[in-house]
Amino acid sequence: MPMIFGIPVQALMGQLLVGLINGSFYALLSLGLAVIFGLLRVINFAHGAQYMLGAFVALLVQQWLGLNYWFALILAPLIVGAFGALVERSMLSRLYKLDHLYGLLFTFGLALTLEGLFRWQFGASGQPYAAPPALTGAVNLGFMFLPLYRGWVVVASLVVCLAVWALIEKTRLGATLRAATENPVMVQSFGINVPMLLTLTYALGAGLAALAGVLAAPIYQVSPLMGSNIIIVVFAVVVVGGMGSIMGAIVTGYLLGIAEGLTKVFYPEASNIVIFVIMAIVLILRPAGLFGKEA
Amino acid sequence: MTPLLEVRDLNAWYGESHVLHGVNMHVQKGETVCILGRNGMGKTTTLRSIMGIVRQRKGTITLGGRDLIAMPLHRTARTGLGFVPEERGIFATLSVEENLLLPPVIAQGGMTLDEIYRLFPNLLERRRSPGTKLSGGEQQMLAIARILRTGATTLLLDEPTEGLAPVIIDAIGEVLQELRARGMTVVLVEQNFRFASRVADRFYVMDHGQMAHEFPVGELSARMGMLHETLGV
Lengths: 295, 233
Known about the structure:
By secondary structure, chain A is mainly alpha-helical. Helices cover 71% and strands 3% of the residues of chain A. Chain A has one domain (3-285): ABC transporter involved in vitamin B12 uptake, BtuC, CATH 1.10.3470.
């Protein structure tokens, strides 16, 4: 059996794939966080709960309405995005004039409330959600078997991340968003409805989290705790990438996912902490993050 | 004749600090009006209150008969009011052309990009550069140019010559003459008295948050004693 650094290629590739899949979720979630932080300057602790909501919407529209995965992939971001817009308009927007801490505390409270409600209604244990029939099975790549659904997750996440990056960096809407990040009052004085822009941005971030939740549903169990399990790692990703940096969030998400996967191969005991060790080193050497602008 | 812009008994605050104490002024369509005054007398606050950037304000502000006091900032801009702040407000993350294209066109009659580049040839040469990499004079040109594209009919200009070389100040003077020829209404805050006397039709002199004097450009020489006393010019 071929080996690399004394590790069977199949095992190495398997863990690399696991790392890439985790990285896909890290990238999608940290992208949403970066978009929200970049414009609203809110550290959205409810992001994990919005990811969990996305997975539950997929599960519930299947159980109640018989709608399949592909419908859920469109519906969940729309429903959770609309919920996010409602939360931003009715509550979060009242906190912008206060210290950032209030936004953080509010979203933290929202996350606990949502998680508590879903635990009360559905219990703490996870519920299975089947992958769509078209994406079941695996392909033999020669050196490993690639489960189709996992391959789809990596590709879908990459496409969505690049599309959001292009939207923000290459379009006029994106230029408006970037300008509003720099000087919202000036942008508003041009006749642009910045409060509406903030609402739509929060909705976009929440929608991205929900999309990640639907993609995750067939891989992990749909559980009220699935958001809180991942969100701390995602915050570490955002810090390493640079708060508010879109490309930083995407690239760091994948890289840290892969780093975590490879650590599982070479030194499994450290796999749960490797991302936080990297975060500590980056914070010491480059406090603004790998892609962040130094203050 | 009914003024295009009318301000009556305007009071404004920054937190607890009462800055404007009943400002009264009016501007006719096509007129260039200059607000003079020493530092800290409330000139910039007057412009920012008219625009709606300072929200703690009371009194009456009408533009073309429309009351601006209760209007949100983004709606105020859509009445035809354009604001160029003293710090210019150029966006570092956007190129010169992105800065130019950022404000939406709010009315017919604004300049096209080609017209703007004809009026400001420097901006054409540097259109791909980040906005904040321009010189101070070019940034000022860019700040004015991007409002001209929107079709705004009234321009609020806060100290456009601040910190600029004399040759650039002359160029800005020419641009203001061009705007006047096009029928644009301009409210200008200036400390550069020489520049103001070349471009303005009428003057207000501000003192302690109020308009203390008002006179047309024709009375300038007769008012030099007062200006010397009030402004030190």
